[in-house]
């Protein structure tokens, strides 16, 4: 991702594996999955939430000037697969390599039931040798000079996500005339669902701010980073008062600064 790619690292006191930590991680993962499936907005993936944040509600399309959302949505797929336990990063090793330099490894090839996620998972499953997260985002975006890897490009992602949201009753489909061409648009019809997404992003850096990314819900933390990387985060903060807006942006910058350490 071109903007704000995640670089958070866990700084352990020992290089020896701790079975208790592994058990805790597994437990936390299960709890987050249960919370995801039980929550009111569980039906939305990270990709759908980021697209929803980027859509103009009445017009039904993203900003023509946003050149980050395409790669951002591919990053959403990678993170979503990680949160669902399908992929993971290789171990950092003794040299403590940064997250961006570690390669993706397949953890489980069990299908997710989401067509886009399963398509991305299929590409990762058959690729040898493994590649890094930035490389995978480029491959899924079609930004490669290797003709043998052009087939990894995932096409019409925004349109396919919009259709998913139409099927879920969040968006509708319309045709708009732009003088020289007609374009299919997807205005928001379920404003409450979008508002829930906006509100939880706002609350994460305002009323529920923890000042410690390790204590934040991983899915919510991912959404903030991915919304920033997709250049749609300010859309969630636009309705805030000037004071709350400054506070929210300051805390996002704090998260991004931690990301660089």
TrEMBL record:
One of its GO terms (molecular function) is phosphatidylinositol-4-phosphate binding. Signal peptide: none annotated. Belongs to the GOLPH3/VPS74 family. Keywords: Golgi apparatus, Lipid-binding, Membrane. One of its GO terms (biological process) is Golgi organization. The keyword Nucleotide-binding does not apply. This is Putative Golgi phosphoprotein 3-like. The lineage of its organism: Eukaryota, Metazoa, Echinodermata, Eleutherozoa, Echinozoa. Residues 21-36 have a biased composition (Acidic residues). GO terms for cellular component: cytosol; Golgi cisterna; Golgi membrane; trans-Golgi network. Residues 1-39 are annotated as: Disordered. It is a peripheral membrane protein. Residues 1-18 have a biased composition (Polar residues). InterPro entries: GPP34-like (IPR008628), GPP34-like_sf (IPR038261). The keyword Membrane applies. Gene3D superfamilies: yeast vps74-n-term truncation variant domain like. It is found in: Golgi apparatus membrane. It comes from Stichopus japonicus.
